[in-house]
Design a protein that fits this description.
Elements (H helix, E strand, L loop, with lengths): L22 H15 L6 E5 L2 E5 L1 H7 L1 H8 L9 E3 L5 H13 L9 H11 L2 H14 L5 H10 L3 H13 L1 H4 L3 H4 L3 H8 L9 H14 L1 H4 L3 H5 L9 H8 L3 H4 L2 H15 L24 E8 L2 E10 L4 E5 L10 E5 L2 E5 L11 E5 L4 E6 L10 E5 L2 E5 L11 E5 L4 E5 L10 E5 L2 E5 L11 E5 L4 E5 L10 E5 L2 E5 L11 E5 L4 E5 L20
Parallel strand pairs: 1-3
Antiparallel strand pairs: 1-2, 4-5, 5-6, 7-8, 8-9, 9-10, 11-12, 12-13, 13-14, 15-16, 16-17, 17-18, 19-20, 20-21, 21-22
Pathway: Protein modification; protein ubiquitination
Organism: Cyprinus carpio
Protein name: Kelch-like protein 20
Length: 531
């Protein structure tokens, strides 16, 4: 005897409750993977080299268009229990079959070169993308040409585009690599033909080509005319064209090369004829300006001050060492003026410094011919306002400073301006609305919450509203016309709190705290659009 469950009267339709299990896909996959591990219900064996891999046709077909075509079509393999797979690495096949059952795979340096071709064969687009993403993160001037060729071979168009862009932007370093010297002529031509090649002058391109030819001169000498066509000789200086290019024995001994040099000479000597001589060789290169990069300058490591400098490029998500400073510097102040990075003062581990160095990212060189500050300074605040570099406060080893001076790059000279009303070391500085702000710091005895603002028109400092928290060795940045003060240290501990200053209302207000306490913190605003 059965009876129906009575529902309330007046319900127009039967009650319904859709249910979707979040656990079901994962649990099902786990059980199927366990069945495979114990070789239960397996209906196909893949023979890869000396390896036999047991599997289920339905799982392989669901994950791979290659297997789906093999097992559902009229191919002989659709009726075989053992299927031989050729031209694929055994370990790579194991990893991909494991992925089909577990949805997990680890791409690493030791397997990516076999995993990507295997994923291409099995048409596993997701793994192809993962391999390409891994290789993008590994891009370096020493390997970008190899990655570029690998991407081209396996039709990874996005990786090829990224590797091309990286090669063009870093050409000045790439041309020094072993990979560059081993390039076949057609790939070399592809690279130097680009309008976006990042070079200081066409001389670099010519020098790179000649170094490539001389690397294997017997084999490559006949290829020189073909390659030289893609060097923009008309863009060279007359002195370099005549003195270096025209006098090179390899150029002089080849008629086609001499013709190219003569063409460039005519372009330079007959400016009135230039409109009729325009072409690929007369077109100036226009390298794409990449996004901003970050520099980590000096500091303290393993009990001593350091001179090393690193650069972070958000386009490659990579830190790389660049040229070191001539002196070790901790507590150094840094800022950028006219696309040059200045390192001001600091402490070298034994003495306080007043020396200043300047880094040129185009040449990857530091210059020490910058005038020193009038006094030694460490824990100094540095910022740029109105074309001047300002050094604010700090300490000289004897006392905490309220001295402020500014550097004129045209005169290579520091000049003192009005001093702050308060001595400040570990001060944060920010520029907003044409004013220079000195935020917090320590007066040598205790942390400060006071803030003052410098007006360069009046050469005077004015006190503005204090922060809600006393902070030394804090970080500061300007965002949407407000100054953000982050972290630092008060009387007793490092801080995670943050607050912001609105100059229109002359008020500080708290913002959400960081997840970690930080002192000696730096803050930077970066606008970055991913590739």
């Amino acid at each position: 005897h059965t009876s129906k469950l009575k529902l309330p009267e007046g319900v127009p339709q039967p009650a319904r409750m859709p249910y979707v299990s979040d656990k079901h896909p994962r649990q099902t996959l786990e059980v199927i993977s366990l069945l495979r591990k114990h070789r239960e219900l397996c209906d196909v064996v893949l023979v890869v080299g000396a390896k036999k891999i047991y599997a289920h046709r339905v799982i392989l077909s669901a994950c791979s268009p290659y297997f789906r075509a093999m097992f559902t079509g009229e191919l002989a393999e659709s009726r075989q229990t053992e299927v031989v797979i050729r031209d694929i690495d055994e370990r790579a096949m194991e990893l991909l079959i494991d992925f089909a059952y577990t949805s997990q795979v680890t791409v690493e340096e030791g397997n990516v070169q076999t995993l990507l071709p295997a994923a291409c064969l099995l048409q596993l687009a997701e793994i192809q993308e993962a391999c390409c993403e891994f290789l993008k993160r590994q891009l370096d001037p020493s390997n970008c040409l190899g990655i570029r060729a690998f991407a081209d071979t396996h039709s990874c168009r996005e990786l090829l585009r990224i590797a091309d862009k990286f090669t063009q932007h870093n050409f000045q370093e790439v041309m020094e690599s072993e990979e560059f010297m081993l390039l076949p002529a057609n790939q070399l031509i592809d690279i130097i033909s680009s309008d976006e090649l990042n070079v200081r002058s066409e001389e670099q391109v010519f020098n790179a080509v000649m170094a490539w030819v001389k690397y294997s001169i017997q084999e490559r000498r006949p290829q020189l005319p073909q390659v030289l066509q893609h060097v923009r000789l008309p863009l060279l200086s007359p002195k370099f064209l005549v003195g270096t290019v025209g006098s090179d024995p390899l150029i002089k001994s080849d008629e086609e090369c001499r013709d190219l040099v003569d063409e460039a000479k005519n372009y330079l000597l007959l400016p009135q004829e230039r409109p009729l001589m325009q072409g690929p060789r007369t077109r100036p290169r226009k390298p794409i300006r990449c996004g901003e990069v970050l520099f980590a300058v000096g500091g303290w490591c393993s009990g001593d001050a350091i001179s090393s400098v690193e650069r972070y490029d958000p386009q490659t998500n990579e830190w790389r060492m660049v040229a070191s400073m001539s002196k070790r510097r901790c507590g150094v102040g840094v800022s950028v003026l006219d696309d040059l990075l200045y390192a001001v003062g600091g402490h070298d581990g034994s003495s306080y410094l007043n020396s200043v160095e300047r880094y040129d990212p185009k040449t990857n060189q530091w210059s020490s011919d910058v005038a020193p500050t009038s006094t030694c300074r460490t824990s100094v605040g540095v910022a740029v306002l109105g074309g001047y570099l300002y050094a604010v406060g700090g300490q000289d080893g004897v006392s905490c400073l309220n001295i402020v001076e500014r550097y004129d790059p045209k005169e290579n000279k520091w000049t003192r301006v009005a001093s702050m009303s308060t001595r400040r070391l570990g001060v944060a500085v920010a520029v907003l609305g044409g004013f220079l702000y000195a935020v917090g710091g320590s007066d040598g005895t205790s942390p400060l919450n006071t803030v003052e603002r410098y007006n360069p028109q009046e050469n005077r400092w004015h006190t503005v509203a204090p922060m809600g928290t006393r902070r030394k060795h804090l970080g500061c940045a300007v965002y949407q016309d407000m100054i953000y003060s982050v972290g630092g240290r008060d009387d007793t501990t490092e801080l995670s709190s943050a607050e912001r200053y609105n100059p229109r209302t002359n008020q500080w207000s708290p913002v959400v705290a960081m997840t970690s306490r930080r002192s000696g913190v730096c803050v930077s605003l970066m606008l970055f659009q991913p590739l």
